[in-house]
Design a protein that fits this description.
Shape: globular
Number of helices: 10
CATH superfamily: Metal-dependent hydrolases
Length: 272
């Protein structure tokens, strides 16, 4: 069973309004033994999409709060708490992103693509004049560029995130449309000793599937992928640990033996 959640947001993230303490209390009620906060850090978010500065992170306040929680002996007797970031990335900002990561000590770094071609994939604007397959291929092309050129991360987040936000058929999501580029992405991640996550946020979207979906996860495993974390992508307290039992069952059915937790950027493998 999975007893950890390695993709949790709080009010330190611009799109979340829930205090960290509420997320922790929800995790305890859910029976989790480990959570890692992964606050959004997108200081170079493409202009004109969101309110400027929405995804900036006050790292001083965040890490100060992290230190307070880490020194809380009573809480730490009940749960292990770790603190990381979800870094939004796209071509052209790799040096700046490396500086951000190395300015502070984090337990875990997720790299994520929320945009492609300088447009947010969760808005209709991105999908204008594109088929689902064309838009998804553009998205994967940018991820491939990222993993080839940026190496200072631990796990790449919700690999098929774009599909949460567009109506699509099973045929349009079929791996046959994307197998060649997914193979390049996954092989690069695997060869670099990085991993991916199984993200249950997609289960709350129109597709009702994990990100990435089962078919893509299976392909990652067939290529030799072993490092995988579980993340709920919770922005609300009731979503902490969301569908972790189903995630565990799916991973085991696909041949995964372990999931990973991270401490000080090092994976710890835990039997499913």
């Amino acid at each position: 069973m999975i007893h950890s959640d390695y993709h949790v947001h709080s009010s330190f993230s611009g799109d979340c309004h829930v205090d960290m303490s509420q997320m922790i209390n929800s995790a305890l009620a859910e029976g989790l033994t480990t959570i890692c906060f992964t606050e959004h850090y997108d200081p170079f978010y493409p202009k004109g999409i969101e309110e400027e500065g929405l995804f900036d992170l006050d790292t001083h306040s965040y890490l100060k709060k992290a230190a307070e929680y880490k020194s809380n002996l009573e809480l730490n007797s009940k749960m292990q708490l770790y603190f990381g970031i979800e870094l939004g990335i796209y071509p052209g900002i790799y040096e700046e992103c490396a500086k951000i990561i190395n300015e502070n000590s984090y337990d875990f770094v997720i790299c994520s693509s929320h945009t492609a071609l300088q447009k947010a994939v969760y808005t209709p604007t991105y999908w204008e004049n594109k088929t689902v397959v064309e838009g998804t291929l553009d998205y994967f092309e940018e991820i491939l560029t990222n993993v080839r050129n940026f190496k200072d991360f631990d796990v790449y987040g919700h690999i098929d995130f774009c599909l949460r936000y567009v109506k699509s058929t099973r045929e349009e999501r079929d791996i046959a449309n994307y197998k060649e580029i997914l193979e390049e992405i996954f092989k690069t991640i695997i060869e670099d000793g990085k991993g991916i996550e199984i993200n249950s946020g997609g289960r709350r979207s129109t597709t009702k599937e994990f990100n990435p979906c089962a078919e893509y996860l299976k392909f990652y495993r067939e290529l030799g992928g072993e490092i995988i974390t579980f993340g709920s992508d919770a922005h609300r307290s009731e979503h902490v640990g969301y569908d972790r039992k189903a995630a565990c069952e799916l991973l085991k059915s696909l041949g995964f033996k372990y999931h990973a937790n991270y401490k000080e950027r090092k994976p710890q493998f835990i039997k499913l």
